[in-house]
From TrEMBL, chain A:
<dbReference type="InterPro" id="IPR004939">
    <property type="entry name" value="APC_su10/DOC_dom"/>
</dbReference>
<comment type="function">
    <text>Component of the anaphase promoting complex/cyclosome (APC/C), a cell cycle-regulated E3 ubiquitin-protein ligase complex that controls progression through mitosis and the G1 phase of the cell cycle.</text>
</comment>
<dbReference type="GO" id="GO:0005680">
    <property type="term" value="C:anaphase-promoting complex"/>
</dbReference>
<comment type="similarity">
    <text>Belongs to the APC10 family.</text>
</comment>
<dbReference type="InterPro" id="IPR016901">
    <property type="entry name" value="APC10/Doc1"/>
</dbReference>
<keyword id="KW-0132">Cell division</keyword>
<protein>
    <recommendedName>
        <fullName>Anaphase-promoting complex subunit 10</fullName>
    </recommendedName>
</protein>
<dbReference type="InterPro" id="IPR008979">
    <property type="entry name" value="Galactose-bd-like_sf"/>
</dbReference>
<dbReference type="GO" id="GO:0031145">
    <property type="term" value="P:anaphase-promoting complex-dependent catabolic process"/>
</dbReference>
UniProtKB/TrEMBL annotation, chain B:
<keyword id="KW-0808">Transferase</keyword>
<dbReference type="InterPro" id="IPR019734">
    <property type="entry name" value="TPR_rpt"/>
</dbReference>
<keyword id="KW-0802">TPR repeat</keyword>
<dbReference type="GO" id="GO:0005680">
    <property type="term" value="C:anaphase-promoting complex"/>
</dbReference>
<keyword id="KW-0539">Nucleus</keyword>
<dbReference type="GO" id="GO:0051301">
    <property type="term" value="P:cell division"/>
</dbReference>
<dbReference type="GO" id="GO:0007091">
    <property type="term" value="P:metaphase/anaphase transition of mitotic cell cycle"/>
</dbReference>
<dbReference type="GO" id="GO:0016567">
    <property type="term" value="P:protein ubiquitination"/>
</dbReference>
<comment type="similarity">
    <text>Belongs to the APC3/CDC27 family.</text>
</comment>
């Protein structure tokens, strides 16, 4: 699975970034249900800064590369998208340039599912976890690890301001193979 | 003379005490009438001194200086009025109610029906006792002369009768009957805030959101500052996905009264429609804080917990809603949905059955009840319920789709396809219909048709999950080359 999905995207280079976080309606944030940890951090710029919805604060690593962010879920979850906020204008050499995303049941069997290269990004950067095969639209996993392999301008430590993890919304109607799409179906499909 | 709208609200908030209220109201009316006309009329009657003095006594009491004597006079008058009522209408009303009470008992033995039947009969007894008392009144001739009072009072009573009957029926969730009853009202009374809100609520129970929207928005035009029922209105707008109207309503309600649970329910619905379920939950919890006895706010909290997949708290919310109001079918439905999610099908069936017993006219509840029945392997009953649901509401495509689902799992593919073909005609833009057809053709090994339907389903923007499923299914299809080219 890991080998297949990394084929097309291996060389993926991402530039720019969005100032406004735009997410499809059928995705929802999953990070709240996870336990977050980092390989190292400077006091005052800890893991909490990654999840505080504040773009002014940032997580700053304080150790040897690669810098790791571990996202562990209580149960197996379906994930589709990771969104990072990084800011080259402010962070310069602290801005990550090469990122690897790994998934697995725990620390013991993480497999790389994607690597991306960021080129002077400022804003929200979208990293899709989908593979080329339609059966690999989602990653079913207990754990996700985001590894910052290198920074811009050969910087040592890294800054990441926000990380969000998205998975598909489940079908609101249990025991139905497909979700309703048209308004008339949705209107009459439930009561409140 | 009296503000009828106010009268409705006062009287129907205490429906079961309505008779008592009517007496008081009549006491006031007759008191006022008598205070200016009583002595004059009695002198015109040129009766005996005793009658005159009696008339004066009533006139005095009518001035409201002495409360107890006023009530005395009032009750006498109301007895007389009741006599005329019973002659004209009272008797037939009584019979009708008793019949209906028994009918309800047979049809549906929930507790309220029994209590309502008994309360009806107690009303009847009161009416009868009044009738017995009436002839014993000494000066009947005096009051008979004031025929205006009697006709006015009986008019009010017949009006209240219609309103009460409508309210009773809608409390029993016999909503179509309730709507028919409200239609009997004169136009001036139909177009009042209270009646229109009741009409709107009845339409909601019948899952006719468009009509409900119309009734509620009229009600809002007439009584823009009334908050009662606005929580339901916001739910209607939620279902219709009218996000603009909904947020406007929420804003207006909040500016009208920040401390009413209805306002915060509307606000919560607004956020829920934007899929911001956490904020929605906070708003609904605020509504609960403001009035912990407001059952609907608890239910809405439950819905939000379900949307956040926190079923444990969802169950708690629904249960606290049911503690307040056992007949709040939305909470039963919510519990049924949770158990359906958790695949506890027996529980689910039980809770949907409860909801169904309370509101047997909602096609949505019916179709989920059918789904639950099918899940506990009672497919025959499930199919019967589904047919009923389809007949109950032609506009609702849900029972048809669920029926096709059941047929498919029973491997009655041809029938399922027939149902889906019909659905396709009604709503040609529904991706899930084509997707389901595709998978049926797939099971049938008709790969070309499966391919065609999967393709259409994909074009209609299914959710990412479904798109992945469909694409995966397409890859597995073995399609001869020339057909693949044609597509």
């Amino acid at each position: 699975m890991a080998a297949e999905s990394s084929e097309g995207e291996e060389e993926g280079k991402l530039t720019g970034g969005n100032q406004i976080l735009m997410i499809d309606d059928d995705l929802r944030e999953m990070g709240k249900k996870a336990a977050w940890s980092v390989s190292s951090c400077k006091p005052g710029n800890g893991v909490i800064s990654l999840r505080d919805d504040n773009l002014e604060t940032y997580w700053q690593s304080d150790g040897a590369q690669p810098h790791l962010v571990n996202i562990q879920f209580q149960k197996k979850v379906r994930l589709q998208l990771i969104v990072l906020y990084v800011d080259f204008k402010h962070d310069e050499s602290y801005t990550p340039s090469k990122i690897s995303i790994r998934a697995g049941d725990g620390f013991h069997n993480l497999k790389e599912i994607k690597t991306v290269e960021l080129v002077k990004p400022t804003g929200w950067v979208y990293l899709s976890l989908s593979g080329a095969d339609p059966r690999e639209t989602f990653v079913n996993t207990f754990m996700l690890q985001i590894a910052v392999l290198s920074n811009h301008l050969n910087g040592r430590d890294t800054h990441v301001r926000q990380i969000k993890v998205y998975g598909p919304r489940p079908n609101p109607i249990p025991h139905q193979p497909f979700q309703f799409t048209s308004r008339e179906f949705i209107t009459y499909s439930s009561i409140r | 003379m009296l503000d009828f709208d106010e009268l409705h609200d006062v009287i129907f908030s205490h429906f079961y005490h309505s008779l008592f209220f009517v007496k008081n109201v009549l006491a006031q009316i007759s008191g006022r009438l008598f205070s200016d006309s009583g002595p004059r009329r009695s002198s015109r009657l040129s009766g005996e001194a005793s009658i005159n003095s009696n008339g004066n006594a009533i006139a005095l009491s009518g001035n409201g200086t002495n409360n107890s004597s006023k009530h005395l006079g009032g009750s006498k008058l109301s007895h007389i009025k009741f006599r005329s009522m019973t002659i004209r209408k009272g008797q037939s009303w009584a019979n009708e109610n008793i019949e209906e009470g028994i009918h309800n008992d047979v049809q549906n033995d929930s507790r309220l029906n029994i209590t309502s039947a008994s309360s009806c009969s107690s009303h009847v007894i009161e009416v009868k006792s009044c009738e017995q008392e009436a002839p014993t009144l000494p000066d009947g001739g005096l009051v008979m002369s004031s025929s205006k009072v009697i006709s006015g009072a009986s008019e009010i009573l017949s009006l209240l009768r219609v309103l009460g009957e409508g309210y009773r029926l809608s409390c029993l969730y016999r909503c179509q009957d309730a709507l028919d009853t409200y239609l009997k009202l004169p136009l001036d009374h139909y177009n009042t805030g209270w009646v229109l809100r009741q009409v709107g609520k009845a339409y909601v129970e019948l899952v006719d959101y468009v009509e409900a929207d119309r009734a509620f928005s009229l009600a809002r035009q007439i009584t823009p500052y009334s908050l009662e029922g606005m929580d339901i209105y916001s739910t209607v707008l939620y279902h219709l996905k009218e996000d603009m109207k909904l947020s406007y309503l929420a804003q207006e309600l909040i500016s009208t009264d920040r401390l009413s649970p209805q306002s915060w329910c509307a606000m919560g619905n607004c956020y829920s429609l934007q899929k911001d379920h956490e904020t929605a939950l906070k708003n609904f919890q605020r509504a609960v804080q403001l009035n912990p006895r407001f059952a609907y706010a608890h239910t809405l909290c439950g819905h939000e917990y379900v949307a956040l997949e926190d079923f444990e708290n969802g169950v708690k919310c629904y249960q606290s809603s049911l503690m307040i109001d056992e007949r709040h079918y939305n909470a039963w439905y919510g519990l049924g949905m949770i158990y359906l999610h958790q695949e506890k099908f027996d529980f689910s069936e039980h809770h949907f059955r409860k909801a169904f017993q309370l509101n047997p006219q909602s096609s949505v509840i019916m179709s989920y009840f059918g789904t639950a029945l099918h899940a506990v392997k009672r497919s025959k009953e499930a199919m019967v319920i589904m047919e009923e649901a389809i007949l109950a509401d032609r506009k609702n495509p849900l029972p048809m789709y669920q029926k096709a689902n059941i047929l498919m799992s029973l491997e009655r593919f041809d029938e399922a396809l027939k149902v889906l073909e019909e659905l396709k005609e009604c709503s040609p833009c529904e991706s899930s219909v084509y997707a389901l057809m595709g998978s049926i053709y797939n099971r049938h090994n008709m790969h070309d048709k499966a391919m065609l339907h999967y393709g259409i389903a994909l074009d209609l923007k299914p959710s990412a999950t479904d798109a992945a499923t469909i694409k995966a299914a397409i890859e597995k299809l073995h399609v001869p080359d020339e057909i693949e080219d044609k597509l």
